[in-house]
Fold this protein.
Amino acid sequence: MATPPLFRTIAKGTPAGLKRALEEGADPNGQDKWKNYPIEEAARKPDPEFVQLLLAAGADPNKSSSDRWPLMAAAERGHLENVRALILAGAKLEQRGMNQNTALTFACSAGREEVAKLLLKHGANPNAADTGKATCLMLAAVSKSSGIAQALIDAGAKLDTAGEHGWTALMWAAMRGSVPVLKVLVAAGARLELKDKNRKTAIELAQNDGRAGAVKYLKSVLAPHGSAK
């Protein structure tokens, strides 16, 4: 079992201190009394050297004491270099955590554009969804990230998948009032006429939520074609 000093070094120390501890024989895969692994703690830190040192010493990138794996923790926090190091060390891109989330769903939900692009570059599933049927594209719409939305579409994300309420990514973008995301989705061919389980279209949902900008944009798109109700 890892000694408490190793975890304290990761939490409050320096990379030099961690390097010294590892050279003195600290186990990179040892656990503390709460069953945490060093790589979990390091993945949450913004300095990538902690993760890099542990991996170089033989830390398993797929060790976790819970359902929040190191890659997920780094992705959610936007620690790009930690994500890169973990991927190169063999971290599983499609490992599922709480509510069936993946590293990519966490990145999309948190609006971590560069992390999402890196995960997609290495083959992460652009159509991954959680237990609530929220896809990566829906989560990008919720986080108002047009850059992530475009990257997902370029990687093959399905435009018109509906979640548990019948809401598509376009509907989520409308409800969030994100015109940039709406523009990306419309340009890619998302269907404006689709209705949710309450028979509401994206423009009606935007109107209900008082999203004036989204309503104005969607009306401008619909104008040449007539109403999509």
Summary: The chain has a mean pLDDT of 93. The radius of gyration is 21 Å. DSSP finds 14 helices and no strands in the chain.
